[in-house]
Every structure is written in structure tokens, then in C-alpha cells.
Amino acid sequence: MLITVKKTPTTRKEKREKKMMSLGFSCSNSLPLVFLFCLCSTPSILTQHNEDPTTRTMQDFSGYPVDEPPHPFTSNPLLVDAQTLQKQVDELSTFSDTPAPSVTRILYTEKDVLARRYIKNLMGLAGLSVREDAVGNIFGRWDGYEPELAAVATGSHIDAIPYSGKYDGVVGVLGAIEAINALKRSGFKPKRSLEIILFTSEEPTRFGISCLGSRLLAGDVALAQALRKTTVDGQNISFLDAARSAGYARDEDDLSSVFLKKNSYFAFVELHIEQGPILEEEGVSIGIVTAIAAPASIKVDFEGNGGHAGAVLMPHRNDAGLAAAELALAVEKHVLESGSVDTVGTVGILDLHPGAINSIPSKSHLEIDTRDIDEKRRNIVIEKIHQSVISIARKRKVTLSEFKIINQDPPALSEKSIIEAMEAASTELNLTQKFMISRAYHDSLFMARISPMGMIFIPCYKGYSHKPEEYASTEDIANGVKVLALTLAKSSLR
Q: Which of 57, 89, 183, 288 could form a disulfide with 188 if both were Cys (CB 3.0 to 4.6 A apart)?
């Protein structure tokens, strides 16, 4: 039998301390937020800037703020509805141009528009105010009790390359909505507003530009001009025409309205599947991303004479297909020459024209992806690839009609304070964690240009991604949402 002896508080400070002690949380199957009380129980943390000395004296004397803000938490536990979240992942996957289990959702297509509508509906049901910009970045905001402060943001993307899976990006959008719902159910009141962003076209499928929406948010002037003037898809449909077909960019050609100012957000945190095997292989629940590797993309076009596969003898050929094959092997060679396992290169697209078995290729088109955590080392690889392109064209007597670096982005570092918040959240939840580098790049890479940034990784089956076998367990998704919710809450109170 447990007997407790009550002591009647004699001072207002003791009353306040008793009240704070009563705001405990159940830790079984719920999100422990106890350590966050430290952020709100000390008055000076919320009032230390630009305060009146008299007010400070009154607060020190009384033990609580004179203009006390709402308590960030009630005694309700913060629970993640993992089953509903999994159902939403499954439902969203039905908006696809290819049959299950694959997902294909291309920018501004009918399925993309329907999927966007689904997300906006969930944002509305969560009580968020929803807006969209000229290219279709979607924002859902929960106003804090100090809405004039820079908000804390989270989010990801829902577009999907052909025949991919249903978790890439989606976990970071639906998971963010569930994180907000869980915080609301708990009674949490954010100081800084919390905002979810669904980024337009993280994948480069339609227009060959990855992270299109976040690049524009970060103020990419050259991209905005190209989208307005020259960018077309494989069907020769301009970007603006495609956007307007989906209901965007209706009254404007100038896309600079999408740009955000630096420090528009106090912090940005993205939840994502790892897309690699490390967390699963090591049995670790949470990956805390410390940096995102530097990516670059290159387009190369060769032109030869073509001809009949039987009638043109080998000494007389100018084979654009063999030039492309030799370049693909050269890319591998130069990447391996870097001496670092962190340097990678991929020829992801290799097209031959006319594409007939009995015709010598007269044209070839390659798209090359190379990445490294070391920008200088990656740039050396790019230069070696360029020199090989010139040498191969000369040797095989084909014309180099294009060598174009599409993007050559620097790496991004996660903000120390956000890393610490993610680590503290994982520890509070008794989840194992690992500091790691993201070798895939994400919208966070470009959000880092305008906001402090961090990323949370969760395990995925065998590291599979961009294929139908992509899978993350309901438990792992729920763990990621808990860490995200806790990190957002912690950041909101700063």
C-alpha cells in the first residue's frame, strides 16, 4: 500500500513547482516529453530577450513569468496512431500510373494532382491553414502562441519515379502530419509556429531537375529563368504549360514569388527512409544525419553517321553507341581512381537512336550522376569525365554535340542544435541512434541555404528504394514520427 503525505504549498513558487510536477507522462507506448519541461519551467528562457528590468525583478521574486504563456503540455500522453498512418501510406500509393506494388507519380500529371488533393485534405483535417505557391509547393501551418517568430518547418515530397515504391518522401509528409496530430492530441501548444511543406518535384523525372520546388524556395534565379523560358519535358511540353494544366502559375510567368528569404524558418527537419542498408544491418532505430553529400549531374550527347548493321564494315563506322559505352566505363574508372568509398558515379540514362537492332546508333545520350561528401574530390572526377568525353569523341570520330553540367551543388551540414535535439529525442525515447551522412540528396540540401537543417533517417528493408520492393515497417515509421514530433516540439519552444 502506497501512502502519500500532502504538503500544502506556502508560496506561489511552490505552487508552481507542484503544478509542473503534476504534468507527468505515461511512457508506455507514448512519447516521453518530460525533458521538454525544462524549456518552459524556467521563466528566464522564455523572457530573457529585450525584457524590462522591473519585470525581471518581479519574475525572479514570484518564481513565474508575469505574462505567462500557455503551458506547452497537458497531462495527456502523446501517442502516434501508427495504423492510421500506414493506412494513409497505402491509400496514397493508389494514386499511381503503374499497378501495385509499384508507384509512378510524375509531376503535374492527373495522379500527382489527385495525390496533392489527398495531402491537402489531411492537412485541413489536422486543423492546419493550407496555402500553395506558384509551382505547387504546399504549406500547412499550425500557428504558435508567438506567431511573429520564425516557424519550425518539416516535410518532404510525394512524387515518385517510374516503378518505384511507396515510402520515399511519403514518410516525411504523412509522418509530419501525424507528428502534428500527435502533438495536438497531447495538448502541446507551440511557441513558434509549426509548418509542413510538401515540396514540388523532388524527383527529376519529368523535367530533368531534381528538388525543383526546394531549389526555387532557396532562391535559384537561374532555375526560375530557365523554367520560364526554355525548360520542356520529353513531349516538348513547357514547364509553365504543365504547371498551368495542374492549376499552378496561372497568372504569372515570374517564378521569383516562390523565393523565400534566408532565415524564413528557425529550423527545418526532414524525416526520410534511409534508402541504404546501414541502419537495418546494424539494428539501429534512428539515423541522425550530420551532412548531405555534394551531388552533380551531367548530360552528354554524341552524334555519328549511323548506317546498316550489316553493310557498313567495322573500319568505316562512327558509332555513337560505342562512344557512349566507352564513356560509361570511363565514369566508373574515374570514380574508383578517387581512392575514396564516398565517391560514387552512375550512368543512369543511356539512350541510343534510332534504337533498332540492325542499325548502327547515329546518336547517343547519357545522363551521369556523381556525388561525394568532399566537393573538391567530386569536382576532380567531373573534370576527368569531361576530358574523357573529348578524348572518346576524337578517337571514335563522332561529334560531341553537348556536354552540359546540369547541377554542381555543394554539400550541406546539419545544424549542431538540431543534431543535439534529434539525439536527445532519440535518447528520451530509448531508441538506438547512429550519426551518419546522407549520400542521397533531398530537399533538405537546398533548405539548408535558407534555414538551419537536420534530417532523421529510419531503416528500410535491405536498403531498397526507387523500386517496388521499397519497405519500411510500421514500427520504424512510428519511431521516426516520435523523434520528429519531439524534435519539432523542442525546437518550437526555443
A: 183
